[in-house]
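Thought: the user wants the 3D structure for the chain below. I'll pass the sequence to the structure tool as-is, report back what it returns, then summarize two notable features.
Action: structure_tool
Action Input:
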Amino acid sequence: MVGALLLSLVFLIAQAWRAEARTVQPREGGDMTVGSGQPSRVDAGRYGEASTLEGRPPAARSSSLQARVDAAAPGATIEIAAGTYDGDLFVDRPIRLIGMNRPLLRGSGAGSVVLIRADDVVVEGFDIDGGGGGDLGRDSSGIHVAGARARIRDCRITNTLFGIYLREAHGAVVAQSRVQGIRGKAAGEKGSGIHVWNTDGFELTGNEILDVRDGVYIQSSPHGTIRGNVARDLRYGLHYMYSDDNVFEDNVFENGDAGTAVMYSRRLTFRRNQFLRNRGFASVGLLLRTCDDVIAEDNLIADNARGIFIEGSIGTVFRGNVIAGSDAAVVMYDSAKRAVFTGNSFVGNLAPLSLSGRRTDAIFAGNYWSDNSSLDLDGDGRTDQAYRLTSLFDHMRGNLTAADLLSRSFAASAVGAAERAFPVLQPSPVADAQPLARPPALRVPAPRQSGDAAAAPVALAGSGAAMLAGLATLMTGRRRKPAARGPGSPGART
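Observation:
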């Protein structure tokens, strides 16, 4: 009788799974159906296309500094004393604008505050206030750059739709600046903190971005370096597409409604970044869609609804990362090919893998799994039994959105009992054949403590803040010089 009931339950869930699969599978070309919760090519058209370039503002809106700029010779340095300067400033020649004791440039509220329309312009040391106005369709920004080799340093930008906009600004550098959007506006009514479009060779270094739509938005912009930035309290910390050969190091993407999304790109490197506390309904610590040859190493991916999401991507490598405190550590579609996970630590996740599809060729080898109860009797540093990532219920969760609602119910327990009793119900096995018995030496950054305690949500498994504090203690206690790695050892770098 019990067996019959279990089989009936499995049959009903399987029928629901098939019905759900017909409505949420990706459409040909990469778009997702409505309700999937993930970005699509539609986003690229809506937010990424260039608008008509803003020109010189009319005299009534011009900055009180405009005459000094117009009189400057190419290559001149203009030092601006402390004070407040109203109006929008148009820069059409290669000059250096240096703020002394943080002068305030207060825009008209009708367009961009500083418009750079020449190569080799430097803007440094200013506070910039956009007045809460502007036009999203014209990319109104605190600083809007349409010239090569611009240098933006030590600027604090508030109350603008876009913070800093690089439009075909090849070789631009944005460093040690802060962008805070317009408080109270919905995300769809704001722009990005730093927006990079069709720009080859750029650097974003040491910036802080908050309360905007997307922290860093990058499209059609290769050969860039994004290092040491913090983006928090927004929609996407990173929204990224059609941009090859970029490097992300030592950044923090935190407390996003959707997390981060990286799409349609190749040869990317993510190193020592933190993807933290992204807890919206469809949030992902790091999403990779149709991204080939991506390397992610020594990152901290913690307290997210889903830690890593991979779809349609080929040759991704994850090594030396910590994936912790997420509802699902890895969500993977069977369209992802040749993914490799080695030398990672999976700590305190509700499910290690949610697989959407029938099978995967992903390799999991030499990772640490905190819920692995197998022993290491021979003392070789690996448990004596393989660690199995997949269960029938987790497989259903990957193919049936509604199954998440039952993850802690009697139904989930019943499916688990049926799986153990009837091997025919087992999904395609995914296992780590050589799981580590102890966490490896951790080289990920210590978890950043949120500036707003209320912003750290409570994870399903417990307090996210407590989990991150525990990780910090773990890393402090276990940090040591890594042992030399041979070519065949788990996590060996090539």
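Final Answer: Structure generated. The chain has a mean pLDDT of 82. The chain has one domain: 55-400+426-432.
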